[in-house]
Amino acid sequence: MKNTLITTVLFDMDGVLIDSEGFWQQAEQEVFTSMGATWDEEIAIQTQGKTTRAVTELWYSLFPWEGKSIEEVEQMVIDRVDELISTEGEIKEGVIQTLNFLKERKVKIGLATNSPESLINTVLKRLGIRDYFQTIVSVDHVEHGKPAPDVYLRAAHNLGSEPRECLVVEDSFTGATAGKNAGMTVVAIPDHLQYEQERFDIADFKLKSMVFLNEKIVSFLHEVTV
């Protein structure tokens, strides 16, 4: 057992900074059913946090379509999510307060997401928070998306931080797994409908809302036992 100072906080994007998980489900349902798939809510829930390519490949394996490639259908989903975010996207409660809290304390702040770079730009423009992040890592920048640790390890490297110094903020089981695979401390803020699921026990801590994060971060910034 040893105590490690947390110097860096790395945020997921969808479902953490912006209330966008519903947009992904809406876009996937519209696009995949237009290609002949039968929509299944359970599949949609299980794929939360995965890359758009992985989700599209899964639906194709279950309901093979003709006429468009997997890449083309994936882009249709991304384009629809982009449209929804641009017109309806809203920042999650507590995000601005948390980012200001970290900035005032000179904590390094990074963004690491399975979303493509084009959507990151749309989200950060819509929310007006780009300047808070000292590094932004997209799935486009690494070999493997979450649950592999690549995006988090790349973000830590970019900031000159060791994994043990990093705190990851996630909403999905896939993302929480990526943070743990990276050797980082993980705070999970699941959707309220998934909060009681045992799979989120993989996280070091679990919160019901971002509004409670600052209180938890205070202890992390002094030392956390690992």
UniProtKB/TrEMBL annotation:
Superkingdom, natural source: Bacteria
SUPFAM superfamilies referenced in this protein's UniProt entry, alphabetically: HAD-like (SSF56784)
Keyword check for Hydrolase: yes
Protein family per UniProt: Belongs to the HAD-like hydrolase superfamily. CbbY/CbbZ/Gph/YieH family.
Matches recorded under InterPro entries: HAD-like_sf (IPR036412), HAD-SF_hydro_IA (IPR006439), HAD_sf (IPR023214), PGP-like_dom2 (IPR023198)
One Pfam family cited in the UniProt record for this chain: Hydrolase
Keywords: Hydrolase, Metal-binding
PANTHER family: 2-DEOXYGLUCOSE-6-PHOSPHATE PHOSPHATASE 2, PSEUDOURIDINE-5'-PHOSPHATASE
Coiled-coil residue spans: none
Record GO terms (molecular function): hydrolase activity; metal ion binding
Lineage summary: Bacteria, Pseudomonadati, Bacteroidota, Flavobacteriia, Flavobacteriales
Protein name: Sugar-phosphatase
